[in-house]
Recover the amino acids of this structure.
């Protein structure tokens, strides 16, 4: 299963799950709880879904690799054309995977993967369905794919194919389908096939290889290193089986898989106690364990050592942050300052009414639409025109749009690929949905906007969250979930971007430690 998000590079000096459920009275708005894409994400983009995506690790980077003799797939011992795997969180079944592997010819193959995952987002049970089909080349890189994600409220689909040095992708539902052409010369792999691809590349023990992994949900690409570990004998379906073990390291997040002599995956392990294991069709059809629905929001949250009263009144927060060694996090810049392991967040002030000067090129790039922030779509532009007036300053436009999203988008935990057009249509979602729609409306109204992800304090814990960064003479934070401009200082930025940067959180998920030192 694959779930992540892609991003543009951060702008120097621009200060810099997700996963929100909001249960508050709109007048008092004090009781806030939110759900953590990962995204499975599994991390981030799909709340808990993004977290699960960590099992298969994903997406951007070009690499050069030495030539290696590839295993002849057609010469392998015949593998089962269809297999089932149970998904567990700390040994409790929370989902099931059905996989198919078929030979189309001596040199081409087809795979299918269908995932059903039961999650609990702040007390609300939800079921997520993800289906991926791929046509594979001899080295198991893909030549074409289809992808569909369905949850209780949203649907997302994408299909694409390789054409010489390009990848052509059609994403979104038929009514809002978009075509994207990505120039890419190197072979691309789907995350669900990455371990099989490593197996068929004939890696020697302790050898590593990098693969370019494409994520259909975000149209992003990442480079991921896979290492063949020592062979292991493991128990599977009542038998002890000699397996080849492969581990993928992505930004500090380690995930492993065990494959039999045919290249079939028998077991996988990943983040937050999640694992997958081959079972019989009968066992796969069995129901979930009692109380197995897992609330990843709570699991991934971090307990605070001090109570922070009235965060929206604070001017500064100082805390100690640990557990981030080697992680690619955007901790410094803008309103955040990091000195060794001490992080200071200072509330920024809103700029005065600015002159209508031309935007610097580094800022103007954040007016451009993207695959999931469709600021050039007719419906988005029409809505932006209803909210703001041409004579409004950038500051006033920002205030009007944040207020409109706050008042009109229902605070509701969902599992989805955050998509501005879909959010505008459904007018519901968690912090991811609020952030993508806010970004799209701001850009359509001439306000450069970005998306930030990190942590926010609520009721004694820090939860994963998403909000916006907008330019009104200088960069300022804004949170449409809380109707805050600027966002309060308990918003701790870890990453910025419309997707890929959030993957940096995979390496610190479950490891990051916070100690509140002072606030004022």
């Amino acid at each position: 299963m694959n779930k992540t998000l892609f991003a543009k590079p951060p702008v120097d000096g621009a200060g810099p799950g997700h996963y929100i459920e909001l249960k508050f009275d709109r007048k008092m708005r004090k009781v806030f709880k939110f759900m953590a894409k990962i995204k499975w994400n599994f991390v981030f983009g799909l709340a808990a879904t993004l977290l699960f995506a960590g099992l298969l690790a994903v997406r951007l980077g070009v690499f050069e690799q030495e030539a290696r003799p590839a295993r002849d797939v057609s010469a392998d011992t015949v593998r089962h054309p269809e297999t089932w795997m149970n998904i567990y969180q700390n040994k409790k079944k929370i989902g099931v995977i059905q996989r198919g592997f078929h030979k189309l010819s001596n040199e081409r193959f087809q795979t299918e993967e269908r995932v059903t995952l039961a999650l609990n987002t702040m007390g609300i049970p939800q079921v997520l369905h993800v289906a991926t089909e791929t046509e594979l080349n001899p080295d198991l890189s893909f030549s074409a794919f289809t992808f569909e994600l369905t949850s209780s409220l949203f649907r997302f689909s994408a299909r694409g194919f390789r054409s010489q040095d390009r990848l052509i992708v059609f994403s979104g539902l038929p009514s809002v389908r978009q075509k994207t052409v990505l120039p890419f010369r190197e072979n691309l792999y789907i995350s669900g096939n990455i371990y099989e691809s490593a197996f068929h590349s004939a890696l020697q023990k302790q050898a590593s290889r990098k693969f370019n992994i494409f994520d259909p949900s975000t149209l992003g690409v990442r480079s991921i290193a896979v290492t063949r570990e020592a062979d292991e004998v493991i128990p599977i379906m009542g038998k002890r089986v000699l397996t080849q073990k492969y581990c993928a390291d992505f930004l500090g997040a380690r995930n492993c898989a065990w494959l039999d002599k045919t290249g079939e995956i028998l077991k996988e392990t990943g983040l937050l106690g999640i694992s997958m294991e081959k079972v019989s069709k009968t066992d796969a059809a069995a129901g979930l364990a009692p109380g197995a629905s897992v609330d990843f929001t709570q699991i991934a949250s971090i307990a605070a050592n001090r109570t922070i009263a009235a965060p929206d009144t604070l001017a500064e927060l100082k805390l100690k942050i640990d557990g981030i060694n080697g992680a690619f996090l955007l901790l410094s810049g803008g309103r955040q300052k990091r000195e060794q392991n001490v992080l200071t967040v200072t509330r920024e002030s809103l700029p005065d009414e600015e002159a209508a000067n031309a935007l610097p090129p580094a800022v103007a790039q954040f007016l451009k639409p993207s695959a999931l922030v469709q600021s050039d779509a007719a419906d988005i532009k029409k809505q932006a025109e209803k909210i703001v007036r041409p004579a409004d300053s950038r500051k006033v436009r920002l205030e009007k749009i944040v207020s409109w999203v706050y008042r009109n988008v229902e605070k509701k935990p969902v599992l989805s690929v955050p998509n501005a057009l879909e959010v505008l249509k459904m007018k519901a979602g968690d912090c991811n949905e609020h952030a993508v729609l806010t970004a799209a409306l701001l850009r359509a109204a001439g306000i450069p906007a970005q998306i930030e992800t990190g942590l926010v304090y609520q009721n004694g814990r820090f939860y994963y969250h998403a909000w916006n960064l907008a330019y009104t003479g200088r960069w300022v934070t804004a949170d449409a979930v809380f109707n805050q401009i600027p966002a309060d200082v308990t918003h701790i930025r870890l990453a910025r971007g419309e997707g890929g940067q959030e993957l940096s959180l995979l390496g610190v998920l479950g490891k990051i430690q916070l100690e509140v030192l002072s606030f004022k």
In short: Residues 1-70, 72-77 have pLDDT under 50 and may be disordered.
